[in-house]
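re: the backbone from monday

yeah here it is again, tokenized this time
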């Protein structure tokens, strides 16, 4: 595996390596992570070393079974979601949409839940972990708008944000770091309007499995692809890493562009450690 480090020369070399990879017969599958969206103001979970930047995200089982866990999640989400909703695609999203329009990319699989690839014009997008803009009832299955739910959350908790004892710090995936236990204990969580059940963002939480149909679609695309292009992901979560293993088993080349270590460094043919904005801002 060849490894290139940050500098003007290494950025130029990384661009040339990417150009050669995209020039292979066929089109690669693209797998994107949080590093694609940080320039849109959305924080990522892990730093370059792969370690958590702050607290770990919520787990599915506590959310499903414990009111306190839902209070904590929806309180943080109510405060943090507006920043996610206002985020706009950045140069990386636009560059990938342009490459797709030129016929150089196949299916784009994103681990992000912000929908920024689609909003940038990407047409063939698979949201591996779902989309934060939707809400699903765990009891009746009905899906509804997260924007509508935001209005309900704010109506039920009109003084919550003002009651917090310290400034809000933005966290990944439309979340916020809140530690005011007294305020959290009084937070009102709205039920499903249809059945009174438990509402959950329509995304895959830690501790949940990615729907099998999504995994199968990616694997079919890999069979026809020229390779796998990984952008802005540490691949620490198995849901994305599995596709690197699949590509390797199929004999498909893997190109990784991510700052810091990744779980697939040992099986990639090329790894470039440069900021994505620089990789995609050149000729």
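seq for it, each position gets an aa:
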């Amino acid at each position: 595996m060849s490894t290139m480090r940050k500098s003007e020369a290494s950025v130029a070399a990384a661009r040339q390596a990417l150009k050669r990879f995209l020039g292979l017969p066929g089109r690669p599958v693209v797998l994107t992570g949080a590093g694609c969206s940080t320039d849109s103001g959305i924080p990522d979970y892990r730093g370059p070393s792969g370690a958590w930047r702050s607290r770990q995200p919520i787990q599915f089982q506590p959310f499903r079974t414990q009111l306190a866990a839902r209070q904590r999640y929806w309180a943080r989400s109510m405060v943090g979601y507006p920043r996610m909703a206002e985020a706009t695609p950045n140069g990386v999203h636009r560059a990938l949409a342009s490459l797709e329009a030129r016929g150089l990319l196949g299916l784009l699989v994103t681990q992000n839940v912000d929908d920024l690839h689609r909003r940038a014009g990407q047409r063939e997008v698979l949201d591996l972990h779902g989309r934060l803009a939707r809400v699903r009832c765990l009891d009746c299955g009905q899906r509804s708008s997260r924007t509508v739910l935001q209005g309900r959350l704010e109506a039920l908790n009109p003084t919550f944000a003002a009651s917090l004892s310290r400034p809000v710090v933005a966290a990944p995936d439309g979340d916020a770091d809140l530690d005011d236990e007294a305020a959290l204990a009084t937070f009102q969580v709205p039920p499903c309007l249809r059945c009174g059940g438990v509402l959950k963002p329509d995304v895959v939480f830690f501790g949940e499995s990615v729907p099998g149909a999504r995994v199968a679609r990616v694997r079919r695309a890999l069979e026809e692809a020229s390779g796998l292009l990984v952008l802005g992901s540490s691949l620490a979560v198995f849901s994305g890493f599995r596709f690197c293993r699949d590509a390797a088993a199929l004999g498909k080349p893997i190109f990784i562009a991510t700052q810091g270590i990744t779980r697939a460094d040992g099986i990639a043919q090329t790894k470039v450690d440069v900021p994505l904005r620089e990789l995609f801002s050149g000729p």
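The radius of gyration is 20 Å. The chain has one domain: 2-279.
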